[in-house]
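Reproducibility note. Readers wishing to regenerate the assembly model reported in the main text can use the exact inputs given here. Chain order matters: entities are listed in the order in which they were concatenated for prediction.
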Amino acid sequence: DTGVSQDPRHKITKRGQNVTFRCDPISEHNRLYWYRQTLGQGPEFLTYFQNEAQLEKSRLLSDRFSAERPKGSFSTLEIQRTEQGDSAMYLCASSLVTVYGYTFGSGTRLTVV
Amino acid sequence: GQQLNQSPQSMFIQEGEDVSMNCTSSSIFNTWLWYKQEPGEGPVLLIALYKAGELTSNGRLTAQFGITRKDSFLNISASIPSDVGIYFCAGQFLNNAGNMLTFGGGTRLMVKP
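Running the prediction on these inputs yields the following structure tokens for the assembly.
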């Protein structure tokens, strides 16, 4: 297993466009998390899934953000009508329910121009 | 969003020196974690602390979970150039939003050979 995989690594988009990022967790991990990291800051929690159920989404930054994990394996994070303030690193992480601390992926760096 | 208070923000030291950084919070956590992040990558878990007062080592790294459960420190002994990176503390309150992590703002470590 090569760890948590995120795609793409970098994305440049024009303001107003929609973007979608993919995360493939470690295969036996049933929890999957999305975080956002802006320059010079620590990661900030957005949402998480246990298997296919999204159990916390109140911290998604606005209704332009949505996430799915349709079969309890990979997940996607979509941002609609992107704004310049959405420019950040989007990190995915996974874990087992009984393990504290996660394994993070390398992130997707989004630049909105 | 809420972040932990991490200090110092940056350190520039000579190879071979010891390093100490700490993290404080107004909230109690069940678990404290220390991560290291290198440019363009996601955070990598270094040490996890599960009990107030616990002192844990991982090679040249030593971390402690404060008695009040509101603070933690990380020491790096005999620093080497590959220690360069950003070190983040993270607090975890079990069963809160799937064991979400609250991160500090990071300590940027630079090591002069």
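We highlight two features of this model. Chain A has a mean pLDDT of 93. Chain A touches chain B through 27 residues (CB under 8 Å).
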